[in-house]
Amino acid sequence: MIHNLGSKTTLIRLNDNAVVTATGAGTPAYVDLQGDNDFEGDIAFIISAAAAGSGVTLTAKLQHSDTTTSGDFVDITGGGFTAAAANTAFREKIYLNSNDLKRYVRVYFTVSGGTGTGAVAVLGLASKKYGN
Fold it and tell me: Cβ–Cβ contacts within 10 Å for residue 19, how many?
């Protein structure tokens, strides 16, 4: 559980608030959890989605990789969000420990039953290991 992050809290953008029209990775394509963003402890990943169209279902899952190559990303255990039913807005958060994650993380969407959903944002809140 995340406790009192204060000034160490960093916002991670896994998908900018935008309409998801097809199956694929979010925008940006991935985020780097190391380098300037050396995180520690749990990361809260949050999805917020507006209602999709009639018959359209949206699923989202977190994937990770040691490289930035799209084909190298694999599903993260415990990194799947609950599927959004047609015409249903939803919000959900999941917690994953940064020590269990590979260097690069992305969100991957699956759209079924039609094209296009409501606007979707996926963010993370993390604590930098060494402060600002």
Answer: 11
The pLDDT tens digits of the residues spanning 91-129 come to: 999 999 999 999 999 999 988 887 766 789 999 999 887
**Separation between Cα atoms, residue 5 and residue 15, nearest integer Å:** 22
**pLDDT tens-digit series, residues 17-31:** 888 888 888 888 899
Domain limits for position 32: 6-128
One-letter amino acid at 20 equals V
- Whole-number Å distance between alpha carbons of 106 and 30: 4
Q: Is residue 1 assigned to a domain?
A: no
* Domain tally, the chain: 1
**Type of residue found at 128:** K
pLDDT, tens digit, for every residue of 4-57? Answer: 556 778 889 999 888 888 888 888 889 999 876 788 889 999 999 988 777 888
65 occurs within a structural domain:
yes
CATH of the domain at 85: 2.60.120.1110
This prediction has a pTM of 0.89
